[in-house]
UniProtKB/TrEMBL annotation:
<feature type="domain" description="Major facilitator superfamily (MFS) profile">
    <location>
        <begin position="18"/>
        <end position="463"/>
    </location>
</feature>
<dbReference type="InterPro" id="IPR020846">
    <property type="entry name" value="MFS_dom"/>
</dbReference>
<feature type="transmembrane region" description="Helical">
    <location>
        <begin position="325"/>
        <end position="347"/>
    </location>
</feature>
<feature type="transmembrane region" description="Helical">
    <location>
        <begin position="414"/>
        <end position="433"/>
    </location>
</feature>
<dbReference type="InterPro" id="IPR036259">
    <property type="entry name" value="MFS_trans_sf"/>
</dbReference>
<feature type="transmembrane region" description="Helical">
    <location>
        <begin position="354"/>
        <end position="373"/>
    </location>
</feature>
<dbReference type="GO" id="GO:0016020">
    <property type="term" value="C:membrane"/>
</dbReference>
<feature type="transmembrane region" description="Helical">
    <location>
        <begin position="202"/>
        <end position="221"/>
    </location>
</feature>
<keyword id="KW-0812">Transmembrane</keyword>
<dbReference type="GO" id="GO:0022857">
    <property type="term" value="F:transmembrane transporter activity"/>
</dbReference>
<dbReference type="Pfam" id="PF00083">
    <property type="entry name" value="Sugar_tr"/>
</dbReference>
<keyword id="KW-0472">Membrane</keyword>
<keyword id="KW-1133">Transmembrane helix</keyword>
<dbReference type="InterPro" id="IPR005829">
    <property type="entry name" value="Sugar_transporter_CS"/>
</dbReference>
<feature type="transmembrane region" description="Helical">
    <location>
        <begin position="142"/>
        <end position="163"/>
    </location>
</feature>
<feature type="transmembrane region" description="Helical">
    <location>
        <begin position="175"/>
        <end position="196"/>
    </location>
</feature>
<feature type="transmembrane region" description="Helical">
    <location>
        <begin position="282"/>
        <end position="305"/>
    </location>
</feature>
Length: 508
């Protein structure tokens, strides 16, 4: 018996959960004897153990290698052995919160405005973060995490829409790529925080402070003047853009919306000339205030803190214990380069061409990874993995700008929210395949990439030029620049014809 206890002590080792060890702190597993252990035989020839064959003992308890006073999600509610399935429940419900909230927030934002939804989501994120600190049991913790994920999904989504609508045509893609760049950097902040502490309450309080500061900064943002103009609230739109110095900037979409409702616009603006009204309204809508840019960029930058490493990890290769900290940080460089490349492509290429290039690179990388030998050296595997991440980030940036440009202002948030929800759904399906073989997952990802290439041929192009001097083009030229369906083009033609009839003098 003494020898058996000594053997058990020798078998204790550090273990990494399927959800990554860095997610919940250091854990030590109490490993029981497993099959394949040779039983010692005494001099008499009979086995020393009371059973003749090897036996596998089930997992009964775990020992957590954590400092005193430090509590993680796993250690506090003992989510190991027979209760390990609760980790997947936590992850699933967090995805579900984002999946359900995105289309709902998008629809509400098109009816109520972008700013009220951002403030509501900020308050909900603050309340959910406070609840995670004082969650009495695992059920309340799951619900609070679901609320935080849903609120941050809506806040990030509306921030991107607001950022897109308050910037000029020439700067939209750059600001969206800058926001995604901040999200890529923000995804590493939880890793840096966990290097200081693994206590879940400390991490939650850190995010609570960030959310509390953001709540005050959200008060300083203004409503999207383009959305106000789209709903014929010209007086309110001029309230948020009264500067004549910026009149050199124009936006084709705002001009098109003004042409659709000239009678109502002139009635609300007043007796001043039409040219002066156009310059004042258009020139002031496209440049946001300092607080608007700061808030929308910092929101996306810090939104990754909401999950507190409960959803995402630092990456498959990056989280390996074989890589030092500076190697893990250095792996950010190619991803940041990928977002810079996407910004360059968006300024010079059509959207569908840029998407096709990124998807083709991803397909080629997946093919090489699939046919690579199992003994491929680590540097080559890491290089292929980073190339895949670069292509995916490039595709994400181009697809984000494409979806924002594809939908008109009056239902842009709804369309982008539905697209965001579909992306979360596909991501959840990929996470469900974590237990499958690597080759199966690569084949599934390759099939998705090939399907995306096929569907790319049926996607319309949005815009092929973003020059401020072409803002006052004729409606037919605007229709060519904006990819609209036949129904939308017919409705615009009908509105233009009605406007011309209203402007013509009466023959009576």
């Amino acid at each position: 018996m003494k020898a058996f206890l000594s053997f058990r002590l020798a078998q204790k080792k550090n273990c990494v959960l399927a959800m990554k060890q860095a997610l919940y702190g250091g854990i030590v597993q109490d490993v029981a004897p497993t099959a394949g252990i040779a039983a010692s035989t005494p001099a008499g020839g009979g086995p020393a153990w009371p059973f003749s064959g090897p036996e596998e003992l089930p997992c009964r308890e775990w020992e957590f290698d954590l400092p005193d006073g430090v509590s993680t999600v796993v250690s506090e509610w003992s989510l190991v052995c027979g209760h390990a399935w609760r980790l997947r429940v936590l992850r699933t419900f967090t995805h579900l919160g984002s999946l359900v909230c995105a289309p709902f927030v998008g629809t509400a934002a098109d009816r109520l405005g972008r700013r009220p939804l951002i403030l509501a989501c900020a308050v909900a994120a603050l309340a959910g973060a406070a609840q995670t600190v004082y969650a009495p049991d695992f059920f309340h913790f799951v619900v609070s995490r679901m609320v935080v994920a849903a609120a941050l999904a809506g806040c990030s989504l509306m921030s991107l829409v607001l950022l897109f609508e308050v910037t000029s045509e020439a700067s939209r893609s750059r600001y969206v790529c800058a926001a995604l760049l901040g999200a890529a950097l923000g995804s590493w902040l939880p890793c840096l925080l966990e290097g200081l502490t693994a206590d879940r309450r400390t991490l939650a309080i850190a995010f609570l402070g960030v959310a509390f500061l953001h709540l005050f900064s959200f008060v300083g943002i203004h409503e999207s003047a383009r959305w106000l103009l789209a709903i014929s609230d010209v007086v309110a739109s001029e309230k948020y853009g009264p500067s004549t110095r910026l009149s050199v900037y124009f936006d084709a979409e705002v001009y098109r919306l003004r042409r659709q409702r000239p009678a109502r616009t002139l009635a609300k603006v007043g007796p001043r000339s039409d040219t002066a009204a156009s310059i004042t309204t258009l020139g002031l809508l496209v440049v946001p205030t300092f607080w608007a840019r700061l808030v929308v960029l910092s929101t996306v930058f810090l939104s990754q803190l909401a999950v507190l490493r409960g959803l995402h990890s630092c990456g498959h290769r990056e989280s390996s214990a074989a890589l030092p900290a500076w190697h893990t940080t250095a792996l950010l460089v190619p991803r940041l380069m990928g977002l810079c490349i996407s910004s360059w492509l968006l300024d010079r290429w059509d959207r569908t061409r840029a998407l096709g290039l990124g998807i083709a690179i991803a397909c080629a990388t997946l093919t090489v990874m699939f046919f690579a030998k199992a003994h491929t050296f680590d540097i080559g595997a890491i290089a292929l993995s980073e190339l895949l991440h670069v292509s995916l980030l490039t595709n994400a940036a181009v697809a984000c700008v494409y979806s924002l440009e594809l939908y008109p202002t009056y239902h842009r948030a709804t369309g982008v929210g539905a697209t965001f929800a579909l992306t979360i759904f596909v991501t959840s399906l990929l996470h469900l395949m974590d237990n499958y073989d690597l080759a199966v997952r690569q084949m599934f990802a390759m099939s998705l990439a090939v399907g995306a290439l096929v569907l790319l041929n049926y996607l319309p192009e949005t815009k092929d030029a973003k020059l401020p001097e072409t803002a006052f083009s004729v409606p037919s030229r605007i229709s060519r620049r904006y990819s609209l369906s036949n129904t939308s083009r017919a409705s615009i033609s009908t509105l233009d014809a009605g406007c011309r009839q209203q402007n013509e003098p009466s023959k009576d």
